[in-house]
Amino acid sequence: MRTAQYGLVVLLLLAKGPIVLAQSQQKPCLALFQKQNFLQAAQCYESQIPRRILTTVLTEAQRVSYGRLLRNAALAYQNAAQKKAKSTEQAAYWNERALKLVRRYLARKLYENTYRKQSAERLTRTLSKRINYGTLTIQGRSSDSFQLKGFSFSKVLQGTWSQKVRPGTYQLLRLTLPQRTFVLKVKPGQSLVFAVPVPVKPRRLPPPRRRVTPNLRRTPPPPHKPKLVQSSGTRRAGWIVLGTGGGIALLGGGLLGGASIAEFQKEQTYQQALRDQNTSLEVTQQILQHHETARALYPTSYAVLGVAGALLVTGALLVALSPSKPPTTSTPPPSTSRAHSLWRDTP
């Protein structure tokens, strides 16, 4: 009987053991809380909570002890947010830490009684209102990956993403090329939808234009055969022939004509004297001589006139057939090649 009583006492001591041990460990944390070092006190309480509290099978004593640690850590974070925060973002972050601890407290049912449960539920609603979550939706291509950074917040995203976030300023970095950073500001209770701009492919600019000096030593054109034009020597020869023929005609015809007329006049004089019977032998001989001379001059004068006429006709034909303009040669057509600088695109 006594043995059974001693066994019951040992069991009771073992059941109370973890609670006493936990209370002894909470003394430094309590001291920090009383000195209003709320953040250090919250970290002290949180460090004593095992990480696998949600999956580990707990005894009744452990359940009560860990529940007190969670509740005390949440209260410390709440006081730090209200009294020690330097910005609204920092206060929202500490309130969120407290909210997560209270939710773990309720999810694992670490409360001792219904009153503790209801108190934790009221604290959950209070912390949620103080944080005043906003909803951030990021719409991007499925092939794009992003990194979202905020106050004590960092998350890698892929494609489209939506979640409740604390109010504050966030930076969205597109990790895929081309990289770009977007600044997003979420207000309390706001639902912000941000469509990531589709990156535009960079326009390929044409290569720079390079000035090229033309090659002036171009291939010469085929030789141009000038049209032969009749020389002015033919016209000059025609005028010479015409002048020579005219001179001969005037000179020869004049001399011979004058001589034949003179001989005829002398012959007529002597014949008149013969009719007057004043003729002597000497006069008769002179008449015969003048008659023979006149007969010799007639064919000669006609021959000279014929030659002169032929020369006149030849000269006139040469003058008529020769061109009146000075001799020229046809020139090749002007070149159509551009002498100024050319431009072309570099490869």
List descriptors.
347 residues, alpha+beta, 3 domains, 4-stranded antiparallel sheet, 3-stranded mixed sheet, 7 helices, 14% strand, rod-shaped, disordered N terminus, disordered C terminus
Account of the protein in words:
- With 347 residues, the chain is an alpha+beta fold.
- The chain folds into 3 domains: 16-131; 135-195, no CATH class; 233-321.
- It is 54% helix and 14% strand.
- It is built from 7 helices and 9 strands; from the N terminus they run H-H-H-H-H-E-E-E-E-E-E-E-E-H-H-E.
- The chain has helices at 2-34, 38-47, 60-83, 88-107, 114-131, 233-275, 281-321, and strands at 134-139, 145-150, 153-158, 161-165, 168-174, 180-186, 191-195, 209-212, 342-345.
- The strands form 3 sheets. Strands 3-2-5-6 form a 4-stranded antiparallel beta sheet, with no helix packed on it.
- Strand 2 (145-150) and strand 3 (153-158) form a beta hairpin.
- Helix 4 (88-107) packs antiparallel against helix 5 and helix 6 runs antiparallel to helix 7.
- It starts with a helix and ends with a strand.
- 17% of the residues are buried.
